[in-house]
Write a structure and sequence with these properties.
By secondary structure, this protein is α+β, with helices and mostly antiparallel strands. The protein has a single domain, classed as Gcn5-related N-acetyltransferase (GNAT) (Aminopeptidase). It is built from four helices and eight strands; from the N terminus they run E-E-H-H-E-E-E-H-E-H-E-E. An eight-stranded mixed β-sheet has the order 1-2-3-4-5-6-8-7, with helices on both faces. Helix 1 crosses helix 2. The longest helix has 18 residues. It is globular, with a radius of gyration of 15 Å. The model has no long low-confidence stretch (mean pLDDT about 90). InterPro entries: Acyl_CoA_acyltransferase, GNAT_dom, N-acetyltransferase. It holds the Pfam family Acetyltransf_3. This is GNAT family N-acetyltransferase.
Length: about 180
């Protein structure tokens, strides 16, 4: 396995993004359809900020959004990762997130990647609990969370760009002995 690869799933290899991945992330971060939960495709400055924020999280926590590449072709599927979030409804926790390039929608990559992230969080990071949060109207993200066995636990108001946005929280816990 390539040293840069943190872990793999059946179809994907996961590694940390670098600033050299700008063109790769532009494909999905600048696409308003992909970024509907953020209400807009990112600007060049927002892409730079997103990459820099990831580099900072890697330095601080070891993880953040990860580059999910097809194991056979090397083509980028999107960003799927483990983000240490210090305040989800007043609690610090590991969170999974998934932003999939539109070209790969409907092929099960988000669920496969999220499942791989959860397994990595339990087995390598050592946490016993992983959450996912999504806007209450984000049916696709909710479906992924449910598909991998996450359970709804709460809705809270997250402040985003100065406005309240209700978000659902889903949780999966490591089973004893597993």
């Amino acid at each position: 396995m390539n040293e840069a690869i943190l872990f793999e799933t059946e179809r994907m290899a996961f590694r940390r993004f670098t600033m050299e991945d700008r063109e790769t992330v532009n494909v999905f971060l600048r696409d308003p359809e992909v970024m509907y939960a953020w209400e807009h495709g990112f600007s060049e400055d927002e892409v730079t900020e997103w990459l820099e924020k990831n580099l900072g999280r890697y330095a601080q926590y070891g993880y953040s959004w990860l580059c999910a590449d097809d194991r056979k072709t090397g083509e980028n599927i999107g960003a799927i990762g483990l983000i240490y979030n210090e305040d989800i409804n007043g609690e610090a926790c590991w969170e999974i997130g998934y932003i999939v390039n539109k070209k790969f929608w409907g092929m099960g990559y988000a669920a496969e990647g999220a499942r791989g992230c959860v397994r990595h969080a339990f087995d390598v990071i050592g946490t016993g609990r992983v959450i996912s949060q999504m806007r209450t109207n984000n049916a696709s993200s909710r479906a992924v969370a449910q598909k991998i066995g996450m359970k709804y636990v709460a809705t809270y108001d997250r402040i985003h760009h100065g406005k309240k946005e209700p978000h659902d929280i889903y949780v999966i816990e490591k089973r004893q002995g597993g």
